Amino acid sequence: MDATLAGHLQELRRGTVVVASLIALRAPGYGYSLLETLSRAGFEVEANTLYPLLRRLEAQGLLTSEWNTDEARPRKFYRTTEQGDALAETLRGEWSRIDTAIGDLSVKSGSEE
Amino acid sequence: MTSLIDRYVYTALRRVPEQQRGDIDRELRASIEDAVDARVDSGEERDTAVEGALIELGDPDKLADQYAGRSNVLIGPDYYPAWRRLLTLLLSTVLPIVVIIGVVVQLIDDPDIGKVIGGAVTAILNVGIQMAFWTTAVFVVLERTGAGPVRKGLTLNWTPKDLPKFEPSTVPLTEVVAGVVWPILLIGALVWQQVGLDRVPVLDPANWSFWWPYMIVAFVLGAGYQVWLYRRRSYDRTVSVVNAVQQLISAVPLIWLLATDHFFNPEYHDFIDLGGGDVKHWFTVSVIALVALGTGYDIIKVILRGEQERRGLPSKVPGTGNYNFG
Q: Sign of the CA dihedral B187, B189, B195, B201?
């Protein structure tokens, strides 16, 4: 039963990391800092998924990046582009539409007290 | 000596496209160092921290796949259905045809049973493996290269017209009629070639002492079987057994007569001349092959119908419901 639950949760959460990253990176951030931010915010995301994802989003023009060499350890900072911001808003809209729709459904079927 | 982090980064980068390596190298190192620092800050030893950070990042090959955007499947869901259909078609239709042709050629060339069976087994293995390999190889190449609009082009547009037709498993009337008319024609031909022609009979007249009357009885039984089957209206195991018996009582003696050269009249020499080859021999071999394959096919067909009926399945009308790949 746990495997079933895990599978469905994974299906449901797929894609949320993209929205979360695009929103979080309105303020510039680097890989590890974003990982921390997201896990503090309650997103279960693995480093080995997040780092390649950031590069993919950059390739799609949703993020831009810049190397910051001011500090001892050079870091690649990502920031959400205008396009990425617009996309994130669209996805958020869809997210809340689904939430409302599910709420309506459970009211209709009488399962919500 | 290279550090653990170096080894990890090299391993991952090996499988990343070259033009991305420099950038990923720097970024990955920074990320790992950040994770290590965080662990050290929370009180771990540096060595343990490195190990922990690398374990968290996981298998470097998988990470490389993620960076390179490679799918880690041989044939993905887009291509799998087409691959399976094509392979099924090849193995279930084309392979048997190739094997049968091979068997017939071998029979004509040298009807040695060991060579025939050996050739058939070799052909099934060789041709089957080649078919499976090359089909898969082509689809793997498509999977690796066929991104974008090409991918759409291969998607088979399924329509309800592609559904197979099913027939309820009753006894088809056309088959029964054919099954009655065919033995009558054979009996007619058998008698006619002996008495109706002003020439030397084609078949050995010596067999009128036993084998030709036996054949006539067998053919009559065959026709009777068809009528019995039609009145029975369905297939089952009894039908399968009865059918096999009635097929074999005519086929086995027929093949024996052909194989021992008791079939054709020794006095008959008017076989069509095809450039001086041993036409009689070829003809004999072809008839043996035809009788053996036809009998085998019919016995198996009736057994399969019986099994389908037993499980209450309708049978698929042959030649319907195949995708055309055009």
A: negative
For residue range B168-180, list pLDDT tens digits in order. 656 777 888 888 8
ipTM of the complex: 0.83
Cβ separation A55–B67 shorter than 8 A: yes
- Is B34 in contact with A32 (CB distance < 8 Å)? yes
Question: What pLDDT, in 10s, does the model give residues B63-76?
Answer: 988 888 777 788 88
Sequence spans of domains, chain B: 4-68, 80-156, 166-316
**Residue A67: CATH number of its domain:** 1.10.10.10
Residue A90 placed within a domain: yes
Per-residue confidence (pLDDT) for residue B276, from 0 to 100? 56
State how far residue A85 is from chain B, nearest Cα, in angstroms. Answer: 23
Q: Which residue of A has its CA nearest to B58?
A: A48
Measured between beta carbons, the chain B residues lying within 8 angstroms of A53 are: 66
pLDDT, average across residues B196-204: 77
> A52 and B26 in contact by Cβ < 8 A?
no
Chain B nearest-CA residue for A48? B57
Contact status, residue B142 vs residue B154, Cβ threshold 8 Å? yes
Based on the structure, what is the number of domains in chain A?
1
- What's the domain range around A49? 16-108
Mean pLDDT of B219-234: 87
Give the three-class secondary structure for A71.
Answer: coil
Chain B: give the shortest CA distance to residue A74, in Å: 7
Rounded CA Rg of chain B: 34
Closest residue of chain A to B28, computed from CA coordinates: A51
